[in-house]
Amino acid sequence: MILKKIFIISSILLLVTLVFFGIYTIAFKPEKNTITETKEIKGTENDITDVLAKKMTNITSDPVVSATMGINGDTIRYYDAITGRAWTMTLRGTNQEVLSNETKGVPKSAKWSANGESTILTYENGNIFVHNHTTSADNKLRDGMDDVVWSGSSGKILYKYYEQESGERTLNIASADGTNWKKLADLPFRNTTFAQIPSSILAAFWPTADVHTNTELFTTTTINESTPKKIFSDKYGANFLFSPNGKKVLVSSVSEDGKKPTLGIMNDDGKNYIDFQVPTIVTKAIWSENSKVVYYAQPNKVPDDVVWPNDYNDKKFMTQDTFYKIDIETSKKSRIIELKDITEQVDATNLFLSPSEDILFFVNRVNGLLYRLKL
To answer: 268-283 pLDDT, tens per residue?
Structure first.
């Protein structure tokens, strides 16, 4: 009888315990975490501190097609070369998030608008799209349009149009979606590079840099069709980069045999050329916002048998760069980073600056990763 009472009491206590445990489990069950499309390059606080302490370091783990500053200047936007997705992250390379999950593959090139809002995407099959990351608008440009670039900060595009029937090549301007187009000038070169001249109504065009070409630089208005004006010539394999105020032009050219590149500067009318005697090219340079300083990567350990700029553009060799800045008024050069702090091979392209100009960003052609260099 006593054993029976003990059994009943034990059963009741067990039942009460199970009831209370069930109530506790339901009431205090932790919520599941929502999985989002994000990733962190440096996983720990020590990793992040290590990144910020280094003079120069990579801030992506995947190769990059192209990168730029975000809309507010406090983020970086880029397309990766693995999935073709667009990403955003902080200036130190943390808190990466996808801008858009949809992709048409990896673009051959990605040209960002001045404010980082939209991108001109060119693919291997020749298709060109303009994608707006704010509105998600995605516009395919019509066939025949190629070499599309942004027309400054206007939100319009400049492009070469090739008419197959007539063989005519023209420079045109249009809205970002390709509508409201207008012819600006006939193009005398088959392979042409062109750009809007900042703070002006003019566009400039020239034959794409080639050691065998005696380069001619032309300007034309973007308001209506007109006869282009030749403002500069007599430099082989030349390429040009206009200053943000549009008053100066950075010029890279090569010796006639293509063995020696050099960087120089001139006025926007093509006059007063000065050779800085710096052995680099404009695709390794970037202007400061005040148009007074040029930051550049200078190639070293270049093979003796290469031909600039052709072999470099064809990726037949990689450079080992060091980094400098030059005051364009005094021609004074200053080293940005000591040689001992460059611990790997760096071939810098796609250079851009943080808004405060305390960080230089670039893509390393050796591994395709995005790097930051403290200035």
So the answer is: 999 999 999 999 999 9
